[in-house]
Write a structure and sequence with these properties.
single chain; about 325 residues; alpha+beta; Fructose-1,6-Bisphosphatase, Chain A, domain 1; D-Maltodextrin-Binding Protein, domain 2; 2 domains; 8-stranded mixed beta sheet; binds 7-O-phosphono-alpha-L-galacto-hept-2-ulopyranose
């Protein structure tokens, strides 16, 4: 009989896998109550309140490294905020309690509540600036894509590695005027472009989900969202390269204070998420990755995906909540 030695830290982390599901579930339920009400801020606040309350119940000594903003601009889940009961593993936490506030406010597909957790000191402390990103799913040799190569080259190399013509490739991008040139370049190769209005954490993850038909993410989105997506890819495989867009003195100074010495650094997944990590996301509105919250007469249903990098396990948790209002937990 073989015996398996489990390091205590990893054991704690394993338990946390299910604990963080509760956190994103609560955030999703709270913001879903405001779906379609046209109130971005209120929906976001509902998610933030719920997420913070649940995080503070966890047996962790946690620090928010990616949050709602810096202390002066975010009263809760600000960067540097300590969360958890303080008796437990020291962890870094990246949160986006409501990724896609506009999607939620307009009741459009793809809003999620999401968070990533990793051992203390291992998540990139990214400021709230833009980030240039490129990502593909697992199974390709390293180096197929390069953030600094022209989009055409990335599409052609990816098509070759996939064994298809460029017509067999679909790229996903945020629908923004800043992407006009990339979109034109991708289409010129014969590849298809799939445009999303918001929600590029899920956009990157789609590259690793064959059922979405997405092969590659290209373009500029938020840096916090980039780190969250990198955590997910660290769990499920895939390649991602990013670079912070620090195009003003103010942004460079702000990022320097957060420990970013080289403003032009090209990050790989391992630079953004240096150690083992957990990632969870619960659907707020139904999208390609997750179903949205369903409010029944007595039951609230949620759909969550939770991943753990040390094993690569991905769990889908469909939960039925019966006692939310009774315990005043949401
Ligand atoms: C993305 C997307 C977000 O911001 O990161 C995007 O994932 C980037 O900023 O859902 P712009 O909207 O300014 O392009 C969101 O759309 C909103 O946070």
């Amino acid at each position: 009989m073989s015996s398996i030695t489990v390091q205590p830290e990893l054991l704690i982390e394993r338990i946390l896998t299910l604990e963080i599901v509760r956190v994103t579930e609560r955030a999703a339920v709270s913001s879903a109550r405001l779906r379609g009400h046209g109130q971005e801020k209120a929906a976001d606040k509902a998610a933030v309140d719920a997420m913070r309350r649940e995080l503070n119940r966890l047996p962790i000594d946690g620090t928010v490294v990616i949050g709602e903003g810096e202390l002066d601009e975010a009263p809760m889940l600000f960067i540097g905020e300590q969360v958890g009961t303080k008796n437990g593993l020291k962890v870094d936490i990246a949160v986006d309690p409501l990724e896609g506030t506009t999607l939620c406010a307009k009741n459009m597909p793809g809003a999620i509540a999401t968070l990533a957790m990793a051992e203390a000191g291992t998540l990139l402390h990214a400021p709230d600036v833009y980030m240039d990103k490129i990502a593909i799913g697992p199974g390709y040799p390293k180096g197929v894509i390069d953030l600094d190569a022209p989009p055409e080259e990335n599409i052609l190399n990816l098509a070759k590695a996939k064994g298809v013509k460029p017509e067999g490739i679909t790229a996903i991008l945020l629908d923004r005027p800043r992407h006009a040139d990339i979109i034109a370049a991708v289409r010129k190769t014969g590849a298809a472009v799939s445009l999303i209005s918001d929600g590029d954490v899920a956009g990157v993850i789609h590259c690793a989900e064959p059922k979405t038909g997405i092969d590659i993410y290209l373009g500029i989105g938020g840096a916090p969202e980039g780190v969250l997506a990198a955590a997910a890819l660290r769990c499920i495989g895939g390649q991602m390269q990013t670079r912070l867009i620090l195009d003003t003195e103010e942004r460079r100074e702000r990022s320097l204070k957060m420990g970013i010495k080289d403003p032009r650094k090209k990050y790989e997944i391992e630079d953004m998420v240096k150690g083992d990590c957990l990632f969870a996301a619960t659907g707020v509105t139904t999208g390609a990755m997750l179903d949205g919250v369903k409010f029944g007469k007595d039951v609230i249903e949620t759909d969550t995906v939770v991943m753990r990098s040390v094993t690569g396990t991905v769990r889908r948790v469909r939960a039925e909540h019966r006692e939310l209002s009774k315990f005043h937990l949401d």
